[in-house]
Amino acid sequence: MSHALSKPLSLPHWPTLARPHAWAGLLLAGLLLAGCATQPALVGAPPAAPTPIGTPPPAVAAADAPPALSPPAAAAARTATGFDEIWPEAVLGPEAAVWQWAEAQPLPPPITRPNSLWQPVRWSELPGWGRDALPQAWNAWLRSCERPAPAIGALCQEVRRLSIASASAQHEWMMRQLQPYRVQALDGNPRGLLTGYYEPLLPASRLRHGPYQTPLHALPPGLSRDRPWFSRQQIDSDPQAQAQLQGREIVWLADPLDALLLQIQGSGRMLVQEPDGRQQLVRLAFAGHNGHPYRSVGRWLLDRGAIRAGTWEAIRAWAAANPQQLNDMLWSNPRTIFFREEALNELDAQFGPRGAQGVALTPARSIAVDPRSIPYGTPVWLHSSGPFIELRRLVLAQDTGAAIVGAARADFFTGWGEQAFFQAAGIKQTVHLWALWPRPAP
């Protein structure tokens, strides 16, 4: 991020890539203001715990999502999501014997977690249960079985067996094996907040040339868990820091704000132009950070009266009008993220980055949660209704983020590319969650 651009900061016009537009910009603005991606929680640790240098984080989630889309924009975007689809006919109706069996079972006692209270309920209390396309969720569940939680892991053999079963068979098996619990705060409040997050898709160059002047670095050799490394400003200006990073450039980006976005998100897909002219799709995953705290560049501008609203349009306009101060804005955030490159084969490209559970995320079926409320690997029934989207579906708790704190707090992974921009930018609404936990032994 050593070069301030004199032109407006925008994604280059690569025809094969998604380009940010107004709605995507709303999400970016929220990320710039919040920045939870740079402060992920350790796997299995409270989300607020500091992350040691080099600790792999989850794919990150927005700390404070942007405002919901306007009604006309939301209506237009809704047609492209597909997330609010639900089968009109129940695949397992209330006349089925398993419904009667489940209704007759005694409810177990509540379960108290460090940050939530699980209240047992009947399956009939889950909005939309029996109409979800469960086979679509099974891939996410199979991923969780790669790193299963002890209580849920005992079911993985059956989960694998049922991967080719019908939706009705999957529904019936879940009703017999699992007990739904309404996830609520310790004070009894079941309402939570749902936001969305995604994996950026950006053009990049393997070589520094033309507009590609902003490097993304691999982990340098001099980092220590005991003390901060060079700050962002020092990385851009200190010869000693630059010497240690020499030759560790993975790719070069054309926009320093794209680099900042990628660092906030924690991982992303790059369409890399190789020296021989080939284009190669790779993933850059989090490898570590320099040990400095995250500071919001949007907040830095707001506090100085440079902008009146923390929107992408305002930040971009300010940067375009003040190229000589761009580095000052970027340097206000001393934290820098380092990456590692991962090849994307045909199978890997169908999934997202690895979340806090250590498994690849599945678009529209993975959520980030507070692990003190919902353990990783837990199947969760999610119901959320808002101006942008209606969700009633099975998801898997596979990720977290420093701002994902609370009993029914969830971040919905929308995937990557242009459509994921739309979806993640629009989601900020109330959510209700039900943890689906193994039935206690009789």
UniProtKB/TrEMBL annotation:
What would be one Pfam family of this protein? Answer: 3D
Give EC number(s), comma-separated: 4.2.2.n1
Q: Which InterPro entries match?
A: 3D_dom, MltA, MltA_B, RlpA-like_sf
Keywords attached to this Swiss-Prot or TrEMBL record, sorted alphabetically, are: Cell wall biogenesis/degradation, Lyase
One GO MF term, please?
hydrolase activity, hydrolyzing O-glycosyl compounds
User: SMART domains, per this entry?
Assistant: MltA
Q: Which reaction does it catalyse?
A: Exolytic cleavage of the (1->4)-beta-glycosidic linkage between N-acetylmuramic acid (MurNAc) and N-acetylglucosamine (GlcNAc) residues in peptidoglycan, from either the reducing or the non-reducing ends of the peptidoglycan chains, with concomitant formation of a 1,6-anhydrobond in the MurNAc residue
Q: Name one GO biological process term.
A: cell wall organization
Q: Which residues form the Lytic transglycosylase MltA domain?
A: 201-340
Please give the GO cellular component terms listed in this UniProt entry.
Answer: outer membrane
Domain of life the protein comes from: Bacteria
UniProt protein name: peptidoglycan lytic exotransglycosylase
From which source organism is this entry?
Serpentinimonas raichei
